[in-house]
Amino acid sequence: MTTLSLLTPTGELTLGNHLGALRQMRTTQETDTCYYGVADLHALTLPRDPATLRTTIRRTQTLLLASGLDASTLFRQSRVPTHSELAFLLECTVSTGELNRMIQFKEKGRGNGSTRASLFTYPALMAADILLYRPERVPVGADQRQHIELTRDLALRFNHEYGQVFTVPEIVLPAAGARVMDLQDPTRKMSKSATELAGVIRLLDSPEVIRRKVSRAVTDSEVGPDAVRTDREQKPGVTNLLEILAACGGSAEGITAYGALKRAVTDAVVAELEPLQRRYAELAASPEHVDAVFEAGAATCREVTAPLLAAARAAMGL
Ligand code: ADP
Ligand code: NA
């Protein structure tokens, strides 16, 4: 099996990314051939300060390695030109109507006339990212589902019109309960792209910062022996804390007060992130090693993806 996953360097990776993606990515590499990329081209679809972007890319690379993904091929999207080349070919097969229907474009573009053209054509690049590696399955969050469906449509249409070139991947939804919510607004997911970080635990947050953020997490005013319980509708904050606790290997057994729950969550999260933070500190001290890993990965990707790009070009008459 081939598995592919790309992370956009739009902010510092969070506990949500760790529990919902990185941990599974590490398990998957034990059985699959895995390509894990930093989607730095995708980051440019919105305006960003170059210096900040550079720092975020480096930090994301180092965190991927620190997450134990060294049995996978790690790469930066911008260092594998076949991605942008196939993206252009796919732009020549997708209609503006189809791109207009993408919910993410509607949300991020907001009908703004100065929106970058690349935000509009982003789904073609994402389709190229995926199809180049012929993965049998693509694990995605619900928010990316529409883009993967378009990827499948484009692959099917291309194969029909130009001949069998692409493998049509299956969509794999992450296991239930893998969704970590924002500590301050537990109705929305914890996100590295959030502007307000009080409810977001970042992977490099110190134990003290984690303690503060968890202790200020929104709960509710219920008191009594049954207050600590899972109820996604009525008690989203408490439910989120319980799910984080369980996902980090902790137990709420015997806990009846929110203060004690938050202390247990803090301890579990700190312990969960400790090995990763230790490896990060080691790797951050040798950036040339991180660069070498990603350069070697990019070289592998260029080689692996070249035949498919050549086939797509030839099929279209180039
Ligand atoms: P973010 O919203 O933090 O910018 P992305 O949308 O780039 O994250 O998603 C990167 C990966 O992390 C995806 O596999 C996604 O499913 C996972 N992920 C992101 N946020 C969460 C979350 N709060 N809980 C669980 N998984 C998440
Ligand atoms: Na995002």
TrEMBL record:
EC code: 6.1.1.2
Name of one Pfam family that matches: tRNA-synt_1b
Record flagged with keyword ATP-binding: yes
Keywords: Aminoacyl-tRNA synthetase, ATP-binding, Ligase, Nucleotide-binding, Protein biosynthesis
One term of GO molecular function: ligase activity
Stored InterPro entries: aa-tRNA-synth_Ic, Rossmann-like_a/b/a_fold, Trp-tRNA-ligase, Trp-tRNA_synthetase
PANTHER family per record: TRYPTOPHAN--TRNA LIGASE, MITOCHONDRIAL
Protein family according to the UniProt entry: Belongs to the class-I aminoacyl-tRNA synthetase family.
UniProt name for this protein: Tryptophan--tRNA ligase
The species this protein was found in: Nocardioides dubius
Gene: trpS_1
